[in-house]
Design brief:
It is built from five helices and 31 strands. The protein is of the alpha+beta class. It has a four-stranded antiparallel β-sheet, with no helix packed on it. A four-stranded antiparallel β-sheet has the order 5-6-7-8, with no helix packed on it. It has a four-stranded antiparallel β-sheet with strand order 9-10-11-12, with no helix packed on it. It is found in: Cytoplasm; Nucleus, PML body. Its main location: cytoplasm. GO terms for molecular function: ubiquitin protein ligase activity; zinc ion binding.
């Protein structure tokens, strides 16, 4: 019998004095345990839980078997109190058996790294000495840590080693600092931009391919037409050769045939261009059947400067004057298109395009230096060339109205480019490549046009010094170089040369373009002016080549047969010849000679 009012020493008597019925359901609970009315319900709950916990070690110390355990004393109050007591006891036992769960405070690694100081590896705070601070480079630290670091180190950031000082430390007022992860968004944006760029590039390549296809189709049509014309010409020549087996025509070693025709140039008409002189160059427009000649303004007081005078080749009458430049014109050229655009170069640093249909200047380019010569690209009429006084060649694109798109720098001397002519690409065994032939006062250069509008220079082996003009003949790939009198040759002489190309090695793709002399013609002993001569197909259409050059000593224009080297004619003029222009209109062949004041026309008959 244990009384609940007894002390702690009497609560657990020796085990032999406790009579705990085991398996005996016949005894009443009153015979086993007496309760005092003075105990509160709270003490009952505590001792009901504490007694079983203290009985276990006592029983173990006394050697009691695990199979026979003393049952705790049962309280049998009233039925309502009994139910409440059972519920409370079950809840307490469940709390004892269930371990306490710690709150899940696991923080991802990247967040832990973003919340810690890189110096002490402790989390920074939003207040106090270790509050969040930053340097000018943007790296974050605890305030005390970065201040001590800058005092003890060489004034550098611990992470990026950029220079820093105590005044660079800035306290950040932020409760929490979180970096928004936009790496995936940036990666997708970069992928999108890359795909858009590839798409634009593909569209551009597609457009270029379509344009190249159109150009190649047109070129193929032209080549087919030329093949048909050549076949007809070969058939005609074979017929004439069979009828005249004793023909006196011979083939020159330089692949130039000689002509022994009885036809010659006869004087047709003379035009007075400028009474004051200063005429310089001329050019012929095939689509408009018009010859244009440069001259100073006839009304210098009202319209100063220089321009061109138009002359109709159909009725052999002079037309109106068109003002273009403010200084002397040094070059005129027409394209092979039917738009009637005149390209002009002058000493006023400009290159201009003039429409002869409206008689107005439609485009002006400022080269920055005096322009001495000009020409069109016959492979692509969107490009034009300008030869400058310093030896450079500027490439212009008509679709770009602001400035030149490329500059071809001089290779050796920086002498003025006195002549420019373009050789188009064609099926030729000697020189199939296209490019620009530039003549300077010191020599010549062939600028081979490669893919993507790039150019490769080839120095032409001409005589050193004294070159005043280089003209080309497109179909036979020959050029005519004119030289002043010098120590080795005391007279004006013209040299016909054949352009050719050779591969560097058998496996090499690059070639070397050069020229070799074929025929030499000599004129008078004087040459004070920079004149322009001509090399062209014979009006006989027999494949022979004619050369015409001015002679200052006799004030005449001399016509040679390039095949035989013989002098065919000597056309008399009143003044030294400055420019020569052959042209054809209505199946009639003419030769125009220009002096400072006058143009003379000669007809092939």
């Amino acid at each position: 019998m244990v009384s609940r009012t007894q002390g702690s020493t009497a609560a657990f008597p020796p085990l032999e004095t406790l009579h705990l019925p085991v398996g005996n359901s016949g005894h009443s609970s009153d015979e086993t345990l007496e309760l005092s009315d003075s105990d509160s319900s709270s003490s009952t709950e505590v001792e009901d839980v504490a007694v079983p916990q203290e009985e276990a070690p006592i029983a173990a110390s006394l050697g009691v078997s695990d199979q026979v355990q003393p049952e705790p004393p049962q309280l049998l109050p009233s039925s309502a109190e009994h139910e409440d007591h059972d519920a409370e006891e079950a809840e307490v036992q469940h709390k004892q058996r269930t371990p306490l769960k710690k709150p899940d405070v696991t923080v991802p690694l990247d967040e832990e790294e973003g919340d810690t100081c890189a110096i002490c590896f402790e989390q920074w705070t939003n207040a106090g000495e270790h509050r969040l601070s930053a340097l000018r480079c943007g790296h974050l630290f605890g305030y005390t840590c970065i201040v001590r670091w800058l005092k003890g180190q060489a004034g550098k950031c611990p992470q990026c080693n950029k220079k820093a000082k105590r005044s660079d430390v800035v306290v950040l007022y932020a409760r929490t600092l979180k970096a928004l992860d936009t790496s995936e968004q940036e990666r997708m944006k970069s992928s999108l931009e890359k795909e858009q760029m590839l798409r634009r590039q593909a569209e551009l390549e597609s457009a270029q391919s379509r344009l190249q296809l159109q150009v190649l189709t047109d070129e193929c049509s032209k080549l087919r037409k030329q093949v048909q014309e050549l076949k007809a010409l070969m058939a005609q020549h074979s017929t004439s050769a069979s009828q005249q087996p004793g023909s006196s025509r011979s083939c020159f070693p330089g692949c130039l045939s000689s002509s022994q025709s009885q036809h010659k140039y006869h004087f047709e008409k003379a035009f007075l261009v400028s009474q004051s002189g200063s005429c310089r160059v001329m050019a012929y427009c095939d689509s408009l059947s018009c010859l244009v000649v440069s001259q100073p303004s006839p009304q210098a007081t009202l319209i100063p400067g220089c321009g061109v005078k138009m002359m109709s080749a159909a009725n052999l009458k002079s037309s109106q004057y068109i003002p273009i430049h403010s200084k002397q014109i040094r070059g005129l050229a027409f394209s092979n298109q039917t738009d009637g655009l005149l390209l002009s170069a002058a000493l006023d640093h400009t290159l201009k395009l003039t429409s002869l249909t409206t008689n107005t200047v439609v485009q002006t380019y400022n080269a920055g230096r005096p322009v001495w010569s000009c020409c069109w690209c016959l492979d692509d009429t969107n490009y034009i060339y300008a030869g400058l006084v310093n030896g450079s060649i500027l490439v212009y694109d008509l679709r770009d109205t602001s400035s030149h798109v490329q500059e071809l720098a001089p290779q050796k001397s920086r002498c003025p480019v006195v002549s420019l002519s373009y050789l188009p690409q064609m099926a030729s065994t000697t020189l199939p490549y296209g490019g620009v032939v530039a003549g300077t006062l010191e020599g010549g250069c062939f600028w081979e046009q490669k893919a993507s509008n790039s150019y490769r220079p080839h120095h032409l082996p001409l005589e050193p010094g004294g070159c005043i003009d280089i003209q080309t003949e497109i179909s036979t790939r020959h050029c005519l170089a004119t030289y002043r009198p010098n120590k080795s040759n005391n007279c004006l002489h013209c040299v016909v040369m054949e352009l050719s190309c050779n591969q560097l090695t058998d496996a090499s793709v690059d070639v070397v373009c050069s020229c070799h002399p074929v025929q030499t013609f000599s004129a008078g002993p004087t040459c004070k002016l920079l004149t322009k001569n001509a090399i062209f197909q014979s009006p006989e259409e027999d494949g022979s080549i004619l050369v015409c050059a001015g002679d200052e000593a006799s004030n005449s224009a001399m016509v040679w047969d390039a095949g035989s080297g013989s002098l065919l004619q000597k056309l008399q003029t009143d003044l030294p010849v400055l420019d020569i222009c052959p042209f054809t209109v209505n199946r009639n062949n003419f030769l125009a000679t220009l002096t400072e004041k006058m143009v003379k026309l000669y007809k092939w008959e």
